[in-house]
Amino acid sequence: MILFKGAADFGKYLEIQKKKQLSVGFVPTMGALHQGHLSLLQASKKDNHITVCSVFINPTQFNNADDFNRYPVTIEKDIQLLMANGCDAVFLPPKEEIYPSNYIPRRYELGGLETILEGHYRPGHFQGVCQVVDRLLQIVGPDKLYVGQKDYQQCKVISKLIEITDRQSAVDLVVVPTVREVDGLAMSSRNLRLSDEQRRLASAIFKALLFTRTNLLRKPIAELKNEARAFLEGKGFIVDYFEIAVASTLTPSENNDDLVIGLVAAYIGSVRLIDNLPLNE
């Protein structure tokens, strides 16, 4: 595995691979890697000749400075995991490589995706996501881009980014299913910040999602959402939202016949966890 810190050198390496007509799969991460990230790597290795990964904690997508400062940094472990799992090259850029002195932020027109759910509670977050993904796609130019379904709304945002930057014919977006712990908790770098008791309680999020899937055709949607929220609050969570939305648009669903997804964001202590589950696919 080759490590790169400079965008120019990384770009030259990738140009050589493409001249050999080798397909490139790309997995962007912010480090603190776990099996969820590795599932993206494994999916890319099945589909492509070359798999590359980036590790960059992107400051522009944190609307809370404390959240950025608390984000776990495990770079040595990350490199070992990537090497052990067959990553061909990893990009470890300093901030100046992603946002050079002449970088001018672009405004990405994301429509309603930017104002609902995560967009409502984390203003500016998705603009920051688009900034870093746009820059990384410029540098890497992959054939396929791999993201995790756990960040479902972010997947929709990145799909929109590819559309508005006219990359539909250049890169395929591959969404890989969420990887879960034995008790159903979605794997996340934030789980490292949970105390033992918080970790025990955190599985309630998946239980609430399963409840809505089991009862989707038995109860009105408004009642389902209220019951799921009350269940989580009874476990000590502070719930930002528990929504049942149309899977294609993320607008609230009022019809049990829609193809819908349950989405939740909730705090346990100071740790904010998100998850989602298709309810009738």
Produce the secondary structure layout.
Blueprint: E1 2-4, H1 7-19, E2 24-29, H2 35-47, E3 50-55, H3 65-70, H4 75-84, E4 89-91, H5 95-98, H6 118-121, H7 125-140, E5 144-148, H8 152-164, E6 172-176, H9 196-202, H10 204-214, H11 221-234, E7 238-246, E8 260-268, E9 271-278
Parallel strand pairs: 1-4, 2-3, 2-5, 3-4, 5-6
Antiparallel strand pairs: 7-8, 8-9
How would you sum up this structure, described in words?
It is built from 11 helices and 9 strands. The protein has 281 residues and is α/β, with parallel strands linked by helices. The strands form 2 sheets. The protein has a 6-stranded parallel β-sheet, sandwiched between helices. A 3-stranded antiparallel β-sheet has the order 7-8-9, with helices on one face. The protein starts with a strand and ends with a strand. The mean pLDDT is 96.
Provide the descriptors you would attach to this structure in a database record.
single chain, 281 residues, alpha/beta, 6-stranded parallel β-sheet, 3-stranded antiparallel β-sheet, 11 helices, 9 strands, 40% helix
Summarize it.
This protein is α/β, with parallel strands linked by helices and 281 residues long.
Strand content: 15-25%
The count of β-strands is 9
Radius of gyration: 19 Å
* Strand/helix succession: EHEHEHHEHHHEHEHHHEEE
Distance between the ends: 39 Å
Low-confidence stretches: none
Q: Supply the helix-strand structural class.
A: alpha/beta
The share of residues in helices is 25-40%
Spatial ordering of strands, largest sheet: 1-4-3-2-5-6
Largest sheet: 6 strands, parallel
Number of helices, where a helix is a run of at least 4 consecutive DSSP H or I residues = 11
What do the pLDDT scores average to?
96
Shape: globular
